[in-house]
């Protein structure tokens, strides 16, 4: 990340936005009509919107998070008498032993003083079930559910409709398109005059896409569970000339 043009604040205010994001997750006030690019509009709020926040900044715009700053923040929070510590920090595997892990050490001192410590499970992988901050005295959490869905309706030529999910919010074709299986298409330079809906795992073509268990927001598309519906290779090749549409 290029941080050369980011202005740093010598206070608890964050320069990049991660601190604001995590603080709002913990105690953000109610915000009506919140949405992602117009999708799934509704009320958004933090876990405890009436809580009083005390913010301890340990990371800087350059990405530096020193052990000394982290431990100093734990000490300050303990001294201030906080009830809960929400720690959205961590390092990628391989993880150090608890006796060498600054977050495990700091959180232990907080827990023995009656403070609940909640740590992020991390985003690093390498597997979907991989977590960090696994010390037994902390509560390790990750987002698993939300209270709304991002729906896309996939309509076949016989008017059968299947519901998938999408994060795409841009323009999409108002008419139906032919569906093809991605491996059956040899052209890498398809344009808008040769539009197709592709059944594929990933695609850079200008097209609609049905992506099994895959995330994308850059092309018109939807994802759906591979275990549901008549979505297999033989089916796609059998209905090559059918027209499908995706409604967001």
TrEMBL record:
The keyword Protein transport does not apply. Pfam families: Peptidase_S8. GO terms for molecular function: serine-type endopeptidase activity. Keywords: Signal. One of its GO terms (biological process) is proteolysis. This is Peptidase S8/S53 domain-containing protein. The keyword Signal applies. It comes from the Eukaryota. Residues 10-168 form the Peptidase S8/S53 domain. Belongs to the peptidase S8 family.
């Amino acid at each position: 990340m290029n941080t050369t043009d980011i202005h740093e604040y010598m206070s608890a205010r964050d320069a990049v936005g991660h601190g604001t994001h995590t603080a709002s997750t913990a105690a953000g006030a109610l915000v009506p009509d919140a949405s992602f690019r117009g999708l799934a509009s509704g009320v958004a709020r933090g876990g405890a919107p009436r809580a009083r926040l005390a913010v301890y900044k340990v990371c800087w715009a350059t990405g530096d998070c020193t052990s000394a700053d982290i431990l100093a923040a734990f000490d300050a929070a303990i001294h201030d008498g906080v009830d809960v510590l929400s720690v959205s920090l961590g390092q990628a595997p391989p993880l150090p032993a608890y006796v060498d892990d600054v977050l495990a050490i700091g959180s232990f001192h907080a827990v023995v003083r009656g403070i609940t410590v909640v740590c992020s499970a991390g985003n690093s992988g390498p597997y979907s079930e991989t977590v960090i901050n696994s010390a037994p005295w902390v509560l390790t959490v990750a987002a698993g559910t939300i209270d709304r869905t991002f729906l896309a309706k996939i309509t076949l030529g016989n008017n059968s409709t299947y519901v998938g999910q999408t994060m795409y919010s841009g323009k999409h074709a108002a008419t139906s398109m032919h569906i093809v299986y991605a491996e059956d298409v040899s052209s890498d330079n398809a344009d808008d005059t040769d539009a197709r809906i592709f059944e594929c795992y990933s695609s850079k073509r200008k097209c609609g896409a049905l992506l099994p268990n895959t995330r994308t927001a850059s092309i018109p598309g939807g994802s759906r569970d591979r275990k549901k519906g008549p979505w297999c290779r033989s089916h796609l090749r059998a209905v090559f000339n059918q027209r499908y549409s995706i409604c967001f």
